[in-house]
Sequence to fold (251 residues):
Amino acid sequence: MAHRLQIRLLTWDVKDTLLRLRRPVGEDYAAKARAHGLKVDAAALGQAFGQAYRAQSQSFPNYGLSQGLTSHQWWLDVVMQTFHLAGVRDAQAVTTIAEQMYEDYTSPSNWQLLEGAETALRGCRKRGLQLAVVSNFDRRLEDILIGMGLREHFDFVLTSEAAGQPKPHPRIFQEALRLAHVEPAVAAHVGDNYRCDYQGARAMGMHSFLVLGPEPLDPTVKASIPEEHILPSLAYLLPALDRLEGSTPGL
Fold:
C-alpha cells in the first residue's frame, strides 16, 4: 500500500505573499519629500526607485553584505539614488528622508495583510505544521511581523541577510530545513515569485506553491506549473495541501 505524504514544514515568503505595501513606493516617497519641503512627482519617483533598486541589487546583491555594506547603508543608498534620478539635488534633505524612511518601513502603518493570510496561517497551525519565514529581506522583518501580529505564527524567521544568500540560492532553503530538522520531501514553500520561490524550493527537493499576484501569470510560466501548485489566493492553500498530502510521495 502506498505511503501517504505528510508535510511537516511550511515555509513562507512575506512581501506580496502575506503582506504588501499600503501605498505605491512613488506615492510614499513623494509624501515624505513634501514633508521636507520638496515637491517631486510620484510617478517619476516610482520609476526612479525601480531603476535604483535594480542597479543596487545587481551591483551589491543581498544588501552588499559580502562587499562590506550593511543592509541599512544599502537601503539608504537606494533611497538617495532614487531622489537623485528623480532630479532632486538637495543632498542634506534627502539624507534625512532616507534615514526616516528606513525606520518608517518597519511600522505597521506602511503594510497591510493580504486577504486570507491570517486564516491560512491559523489553519496551518491547526494541522500541526511547523511554520517558518524564508524571505529575501533584511533585519527589519522580525519587527514588521511583530507589528503586524504575524510573528506568533512562526517557529523561526530566516531572512536572506541572516542566511547570507537570497532565494533561489540553495543555502537559504538548506538552513531552513536544518533549523526545522526536516527533510525536503516533507517540506513545502509558499511564495509569489516563480524563480525565487517556486523554482528555488523545488530545486531543493521541496514541494512548492505559487501565489498569484495582481498581474496575469506569464503563459510560459503557467504552462510549466501543475495547476494544483497555483494559488489564486491564500484561501486555496489548505485545499492544495489536502490534495498534496493525498498524493503518493515521489509522484
Remarks:
- The chain has a mean pLDDT of 95.
